Records
---
Amino acid sequence: MRRYALWIVAVLFVALLFPRPAAASGPADAERRNPVAPDALCTPRLQLRHPARCSAGGPGGRAAELAQQGLYPQRPLPIASVDPSLGYMPFRYVRASNGAVEVYSSAQGALNGSGSSSTVGPGFVFFSYYDRIEEGGKVAYSTAQGYISGSQVSRVTPSSLRGVAFSRTPDRPFGWVISGGACSQRTPGGAEDYTGRCYMRYTLVQVYDTQRVGEWDWYKIGPDEWMEQRMLALVFPDPTPPQGVTDDRWVSVNLYEQTVAAYEKGQLVYATVASTGRYGFWTKPGLFQVWAKLERDDMTGGVPSAEHSNFYFLGDVPWVMYFDQARALHGTYWHNKFGTPTSRGCVNLSTFDAQWFFNFLDEGSWVYVFDPSGNTPTDPAMYGPGGA
């Protein structure tokens, strides 16, 4: 044992007397000597408390700058997983091209264009179909109303928009870019000063600061990156139950921002972009309760007319939750204008989002509709029963 210890001492003594020659220095050697990236050395705590210790020219310096702006670390939203099967539809949809649509009692009649039994429209008309029949270059669709000719309709594809679920209430406001191709600016308002960063529609962003410039708010969505409020549909998390809500579960519909948020047990659990009533067909502000839930329902209104028709027929509207007469939260397959007031009073949702809310709400659940701008009329005399 003593001999082994003496041998180790001798080896160490020789190593000290005859050190290994240093190899030529280069980038690879520097990387081996400093295997930890500068960003990793500049931890969030170090950046906040001692920013000077982070390199001014490297990534660490940028992180220190962000820390001083209150933007670092940019905590991701606490997004939770959602059942990916939501939004599945057992049928597909077609839209009437022009004029009234002839309805036939048989597929052969629709293929040949003979012996129609009724008509639908003219107007804003959509059918759900269960089967597509093709024969001799002609097409017919099987619908709940009967068979229709493919020459009078065209197929439509519902929006793929999906909201976000949360594991807890986010720390700050967030929202979606609703104007595709919108580009951020380095400074809020004033002369154009674009960053070169542009966003696809429905991109999710967080809000770190707000500045009022003229008649519009500008929101800081990143370091030196601002976007004007008309480009965004935002959610300002507020888990305080609205006055009158007597349950720990409710939905808030923000008419100004065109967003819908679901709360449960004092936490924001889901949010998305919606499309509420357009001018003259407003979604009425107030506190309501869901009075009926239907997995699907036909929606129709107006009067068919060859000129200036206000008639509409929407077959098999999915995941319908009526809360104020004929006004409902429901799935929408006929447009992709979420973030813009478009409906006749209902709260239009993507089919995916509508099914999420359908599973979340019960008959009797609370729906709070509000307009923080105060621009939506509140006089009940200005409202009819509503529509899709």
---
Amino acid sequence: MNLTDLEYICDCMANVSDIPIRLYASQQFDSAFRMHHLHPDPFLIYKDELLLRKENISYFITPYLQYLGIINHKEFTIIMGPVGQCNLNRQEEHDYAFLLGISFQEFKQLLQDMNSIPVMTLENFLYLLLLVNFYLNDERLDLSDLPLFDQIQRFYNHNVLEVSQDMDEPKGQSKTFHNSLDYEKQMLAYIKAGDTDGLSAFIMKKPHGGVGKVARHYLRQLKNIFITVVTLVSRAAIDGGLSEDEAMSLSDYYIQYCEDLFDTESISALQYHMVMEFTDRVHKTKDIAFVTPLIHEVISYIKHNLANNLDSTVIAEQIHMSRSALSTRFKKEVGINLTDFIMKERINKAKSLLKYTDKPLSEISSFLCFSSQSHFQNVFKKINGITPHEYRKSTK
């Protein structure tokens, strides 16, 4: 099949599905179809990684829970998506704009354009990929054959729950694993404490014994394990201060999401996301568990505006309170100065950007409103004991 044929196929698929499609030849851009005015194209954030995929077919879940499909045919690559509504809070919108290198105002327009793409379930999207792959590569595959490529998966791959892959062996011949109670207790203790850094390091370095057989079929086995883990994690999060309503809603969301997945890697990746999100929410809750509604509002405003100008005067204006009264009340309830709290939150955000992106220090410091890169580096080292460069190197 030549380039002209593939351009025709992509054009037809895009017009039928209304999903953005890009065609690359030998990793060089050729053409795009039904792009919904996506300027810049969100795919560009992940382009270098996705174009290196060698499988004939795979899919990718972004940190914002959008889907991209990748189909390779000879020297050609077809990229489909993003599919999935982008429901972001204000800080996540700033983060997304930062990754794309555009202003917040430009991103708001881009977000409208992304959300104009027709909603399609992950299952339906994957069936469309299977159909295209069958036509191009003559492969008759199932949903469970589709490999997931997840941006955060590399931090979890070598610690995925180890389950016997031969679930249909005769009784007495299969290997049965039993999860370490000590491992479980340690993991839940990190979640209850809201210690995201400690939990991440623990998962990376601490091996565990796996689990026993809970279902006849391997994929059902992993989903049952996921449900069990969500239950344990949500209870630990509640013990750590997360509200029952929030914990149960998050638990329901992840269970429903897991049921829509059809391969082991994606379930493992989702499990990592789930455990870390519960822990992060507990961490954030501990900042506001024992404060008045007014200071709760202040803390929430700070967390959602780290990429904006933040000082006591600006925040005081938002809540219609004098700067001095706000500073005094914040210190009394939270235990640290308002300025120090803002700086701590910005450094936490910087750690996430250093770990999960390749953005240079100059751009990160500017994005988080530090006066200069040197100021950012000095504050980071004062709080963490190492430089931003040393921290990034330690996470790779």
---
Amino acid sequence: MTTSRAPSHLPHPARVANPVLALLMLLALAAATGLGFVALAPNRLLEGQPLPLWRLAGTLPAPLLVAAAACAALLVAAAFAPRGRPASAAAAASRMPAASRMPRRQVVVAAAAAALLALMLALAGDAAARLVREALTPLARVSLGAGFWVIVLALVLALADALQRLRLGAAARVAASAAALLPALGVAASGALGELSLAREYANRPDVFWQAFAAHLEIVAAALLPTLAIGWPLGAAAFHSERVARPLLAALSVVQTVPALALFGLLIAPLAALGLPGVGRLPAVIALVMYSLLPVVQSTAAGLAQVPAAPVEAAAAMGMTPRQVFWQVRVALALPLLVAGLRVCTVQAIGLAVLAALIGAGGLGALVFQGLFGTAMDLVLLGVLPVVALALVADAALRLVAAGLAPLAP
């Protein structure tokens, strides 16, 4: 019995070149057509009327719209255009140097996503300026709508996906990410967003914002220093003794299951019994230290355990003492994982420090909860966006440090 085979000359079924990018572009298109790009409200407290991008298109600058459409077309083409090439071209490409075979499609995607991100900001700023001028009340506010944030999220994910596919090193990826965000930062720094409600919230309280920003950094730094001073020795103890590791990690895991607000409340009575304030920065720092210990202890114990036996035995054979072997061999080779634990607890502390505002510790969380209690969502964003930026910057910086230490690892 023979089986029939399709003729070889028939074309293969069409395939999406980049399903991730295709899905993101479809999501952005749905947001542009079905969700509000900006929202016009009579004042900062009332909910605004959402205005989709297609309704604003007739009043927005044509050059910006044409540029945005061109960037969107490039992204759609990169998502759906076939990736096939003739056999002769593929054979020639295989003989090219690796640097010459960089996937240009991903470079185009990254550049188009970065440009479109800046153009979305420029369009939102222009729409806000026009709507405020035409408003019947001087108290009118224009906020960024759900459609804008969905489009921005899709573009950021498309940019991250393109940089991931380029297979860049850690330093090159951070540099490429920073370069991709420069156009958007340039739009923001140019004052084009000045009529947006978010920018006006900042303009009304710049001193308050920077004081909250500095307080947030102080809380995080005050929590990280004792976390490392306690966590690294505990991690080393967990590495040396299984009897220490099991109860220690179990106790720290239990702490992670306690909600942050509950932990703040549980600290009030013990601190009051010791004559210490139960609210303010002290309980906030203590709670952040308790939450941050688990990733530091785990990464320290895992980093010390993953050091191969060969360099340890070689160091001992050379006459090094156990203390010298530990510090000069084990710790040196475990540094990348130690920094990885520091990265995790730093990002976690930056986020959890927002909740510390509920017990009077201050920080950017004060702006967040002030906006929530006053139903001023742009004030909430004024507190949230810097927290996100801080977490991303800290994550990127510590990734660079870990990548620089990676050559020391086995």
